[in-house]
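Closing statement on the zinc ion sub-project.
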Amino acid sequence: MAEEHTTTPFDAEITELLRCTRCNLRYAAGKSTSSLKLTYCSFLCELGDLGFSMQGLEHMERAASEPATEADETPEPVAVD
Ligand SMILES: [Zn+2]
């Protein structure tokens, strides 16, 4: 008996396996937790390979672009004798 080959349009997308650039694992792009779904199987591999995560970088850039609020200095109390 030959193996039945059934394909649905949905399966085609989900079962499209990629090979992780870092750990060489085969994974489904849709299940990757990495921002670079087509390159890494998970954000851990992304993090390990790049040294940072794209999400973390995005967050850092956003934080850096925020204006620093350091004009709220309280003056030192002056001792009056
Ligand atoms: Zn991996």
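The longest helix spans residues 54-65. With this model delivered, the sub-project is considered complete and its resources will be redirected to Aim 3.
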